[in-house]
Design a protein that fits this description.
Helix 5 (88-115) packs across helix 7 (175-186), helix 9 runs parallel beside helix 11 (271-286) and helix 15 (399-409) packs across helix 17 (423-439). The strands form 8 sheets. Strands 26, 27, 28, 29, 30, 31, 32, 33, 34 and 35 form a 10-stranded antiparallel beta sheet that branches. This protein has an 8-stranded antiparallel beta sheet with strand order 13-14-15-16-25-20-19-18, with no helix packed on it. The termini are far apart. The longest helix has 28 residues, at 88-115. The protein is an alpha+beta fold and 823 residues long. Helix content is 32%, strand content 26%.
Length: 823
């Protein structure tokens, strides 16, 4: 039963401590909603009232007919809307020629299901919303939201609505795009009839302000944009008559006034706000014959420009630390850029330059985050939703956005990563955009690895081919404000070996199905990081908040031709009552080779430790044993390519656990999940070697050997015998039979038959001697030293200088590394 909300003045009393602007905005919104409830505003305009809302100079007669409105809209659209619709027949033919008959057939088959009112939404298939479609019904939970004023819906309560993400996804009406493509390709009127039936049914069931479909200004914005696209698809169809258009125009006016009045300026100043601004800009540029259009256009432009610095960090990372919403943001701004150019709107040159720079920074991060197979890690929350145009690409394939950026900014590197021209490119920029893309040179990005230090992401890769190695390390914050879309993934990482994704972020799965599942997918144990006492590094608060948030600190980042190195820590476990703990993770990537990861926990107490490793569903990891008896984790494909994961820690053992991943909201699937489990008292450290194996290579093996004042490991890899040594620090030298060093990390390579190591990588130290000959001796610490032997000379490069050292004569076997297995 509908009840009036409380006196708005009571609401305002709760705003203590907020800024005056915040109080004023919320107060106006509260009063506006109250007047809607008591019937003083929020109604659909009559025909007479609509005439008064028009720009009179745009029409010749006092009585404006539906036909005139229909004609005026498409007259405006010829210049102001996306150029794919200038010549629809040509675009339709180009779509078929470029993307093939199978792609067209897929759209047609999906459209046929929509004609039967069966929806594929998010991760759900064949959802039935009733006949006719009930736009307030949530079919998964079998719940119909009540017909009450939108303000009466609780933001997070789902008992009376079910998962509103499902309801809202249907009510975005983005399926009109699928119906539209099917209509253009087949000229089958049933697709246009389905569009009109859904449109008309929605208007009948959703009077302004009433029901769940008016409860989110962002959802209203998405729906408005979908309608505008659909109008162009179905122009001149028998079903989409001027009378239908006039009725829809009245509802679009209601959409615009609602968005304008209830902007998420203080409630959700993230993609909610920028998406709402884009919706207003769409309405303002496409309905220029409405008096209010200019105001909507101005508001939308102002917000989108003002939010550039707030939502996009200086390095281009989206401030909520989620790659899904990063793409949302990039798409919003690309649409804005295209529309503002089509509408010949002028932006102050300084602001225009900033807009271009910021949008490219968004795309730069997306480019570097792209895995070798063209997909993108789904870090943080994903809500499964997308911006038009809808395409047949997989949810984690963001390359279509990059292809649009390649044309707009003439970026050869964006084209290289995005590969072929995309469906997004055709619909947003038309045939001319496709031609520019074809003529644009393709060149790989200048750098392989890159740090995004403001966002806290570090990408390590040895190249840009489809078979290269890749690691993305997350040392960023949990997210802006209350971290609502962040996960407890601090110091987690994703890994691809020889182009194949091996270790993966689990995704989101759900916001509302259950609190247990919501928290499970955003927990630390669901990510490739270390957990202590089975706790998450950040403690859960509400569904979109945290009780405590881990704060990370990056200690080191280096990227050179031979290696990448990153080290960071976080304080999330300082809260542990029995004994506070600090976790530090270091990763050394030897390019074109393998990764070495060290985890160190500084604590005085006793704790349980879990190293978590999540594989994609198609992987088949299993425990195995090396020749020396060490248990490790291996994954081999049918062609013999594989991956070995060797972890060393006190009293540790491997355990297989139940794992789940979600590639898209609403769908989850079982996936391999292994933990390396141990317990210990006092400071603890773990070393993990992640080693690729190609067909024909001998099985890699890692063996720990003894040294004083540190840890040492022998890595038998391909035809090499590598040595990795970690020094405990404090300037104490590690002494071996053939070298002394105080560098914290030392890696050396010995080829079969050689007497001397041929290569060294040293990190964080100032002293190194080889065979009694001093090689490095500085008063202050060096970040790194790289040494390569050519004959009897060792050529050394540090961040300070390049030099050579003559090596002493050696006797046979002086430098052969002995392991416990040899003895």
């Amino acid at each position: 039963m509908t009840t009036l909300m409380g006196n708005p003045l009571e609401k305002i009393k709760k705003l203590k401590g907020r800024s005056w602007s915040d109080i004023r905005t919320r107060g106006k919104q509260s009063l506006s909603a109250y007047t809607e409830q008591i019937g003083l505003k929020g109604k659909i305009p009559t025909d007479d009232e609509l005439r008064k809302l028009l720009v009179r100079s745009e029409f010749f007669n006092d009585i404006v007919t539906a036909d005139e409105l229909y004609t005026k809209f498409f007259e405006v659209g010829k210049c102001n809307f996306f150029p794919a619709f200038i010549d629809k027949e040509n675009t339709t033919a180009l779509f078929l020629d470029t993307f093939g008959s199978q792609t067209v057939a897929k759209f047609v088959e999906d459209a046929k299901k929509l004609c039967e009112d069966k929806f594929d939404l998010l991760g759900y298939k064949d959802l039935d919303f009733g006949d006719p479609v009930d736009w307030h019904y949530e079919p998964v939970s079998d719940i119909q939201a009540p017909m009450q004023h939108w303000k009466l819906f609780d933001d997070l309560e789902t008992e009376g609505t079910g998962d509103r993400k499902i309801v809202w996804e249907a009510n975005r009406h983005q399926h009109f795009f699928t119906l539209g493509i099917a209509y253009l390709q087949t000229k089958d009127e049933r697709f246009a009839a389905a569009f009109v039936r859904h449109l008309d049914g929605w208007m009948e069931q959703n009077p302004p302000g009433m029901g769940i479909n008016w409860a989110s200004s962002l959802e209203i914005s998405f729906r408005a944009m979908s309608w505008l696209w659909a109008f162009h698809f179905f122009k001149d169809s028998q079903s989409f008559t001027p009378g239908v258009f006039r009725k829809a125009l009245k509802y679009l006016f209601a959409h615009g006034t609602h968005i304008e009045q209830y902007l998420s300026t203080y409630y959700s100043p993230n993609t909610h706000l920028t998406g709402e601004a884009l919706g207003l800009y769409y309405l303002g540029t496409q309905l220029t014959f409405l008096e209010r259009a200019g105001h909507w256009r101005k508001i939308g432009r102002k917000i989108l420009l003002e939010e550039l610095d707030k939502q996009i960090l200086p390095d281009g990372v989206y401030f909520e630390q989620t790659t899904w919403y990063q793409r949302y943001t990039a798409d919003f701004y690309l649409h804005f850029l295209i529309l503002h150019k089509l509408n010949n709107e002028k932006i102050v040159p300084k602001k225009s330059a900033k807009l271009d720079k910021k949008v490219q920074s968004l795309l730069d991060f997306m480019m570097f985050a792209t895995r070798p197979d063209g997909t993108t890690p789904i870090i943080g929350d994903d809500d499964g939703g997308r911006v038009l145009p809808q395409t047949d690409s997989t949810p984690d394939n963001f390359r279509g956005t990059l292809s649009v950026g390649a044309v707009l900014f003439k970026r050869e590197d964006y084209k290289y990563v995005s590969k072929d021209g995309s469906q997004e490119l055709l619909w947003l920029l038309g045939e001319e955009g496709m031609k520019i893309y074809d003529f644009l040179e393709s060149y790989h990005p200048e750098n392989n690895s890159k740090a995004f230090e403001d966002g806290g992401y570090f990408v390590m890769r040895d190249g840009w081919s489809e078979t290269d190695n890749y690691l993305l390390f997350d040392a960023g914050d949990i997210g802006s404000h209350n971290g609502g879309h962040g996960h407890a993934d601090t110091l987690g990482f994703e890994l691809a070996v020889a182009g194949k994704t091996m270790l993966i972020d689990p995704g989101t799965y759900t916001y509302h199905e259950s609190r247990e599942l919501r928290d499970s997918f955003r927990s630390s144990s669901a990510h490739n990081t270390l957990t202590i006492d089975d706790e998450s590094s950040s403690q859960f608060g509400g569904k979109f908040s945290w009780q405590t948030k881990a704060v990370s600190m990056v200690k080191s980042w280096m990227s050179l031709d031979r290696f990448d190195f990153v080290e960071a820590s976080h304080d999330g476990y300082q809260r542990l009552e029995n004994s506070p703990a600090e976790h530090t993770r270091s990763i050394l990537f030897l390019r074109n080779e393998y990764w070495i990861m060290r985890d160190f926990v500084n604590t005085a107490g006793e704790h349980k430790y879990r190293q978590n490793f999540h594989f994609p569903p198609e992987a088949k990891p299993a425990t195995s044993k090396t020749r020396s008896g060490k248990e490790f984790l291996r994954e081999n494909d049918s062609e013999g390519n594989g991956f070995g994961l060797f972890t060393f820690g006190d009293n540790g053992l491997w355990q297989e656990k139940e794992g789940w991943i979600s590639r898209i909201y609403g769908k989850r699937e079982k996936a391999p999940f292994y933990q390396y489990q141990s317990e210990g008292s006092g400071p603890q450290e773990f070393f993990t070697f992640m080693i690729p194996r190609e067909t024909g290579d001998p099985e890699p093996e890692v063996i720990e050997t003894q040294v004083t004042a540190g840890r040492a490991f022998v890595v038998n890899y391909r035809d090499y015998q590598d040595l990795f040594v970690f020094a405990d620090g404090d300037g104490q030298l590690i002494r071996t039979e053939f070298f002394d060093t105080d560098f914290r990390f030392l890696w050396a390579r010995l080829s079969a038959g050689d007497e001397l190591p041929e290569e060294f990588v040293l990190i964080d130290g100032n002293r190194f001697s080889l065979g009694g000959r001093v090689v490095v001796d500085y008063e202050s610490k060096l970040e790194y030293a790289i040494a390569r032997r050519f004959g009897k000379k060792l050529h050394v490069r540090t961040e300070k200088e390049v030099f050579s050292v003559s090596l002493p004569q050696t006797s046979p076997n002086t430098y052969i590394v002995k392991t416990p297995a040899d003895e």
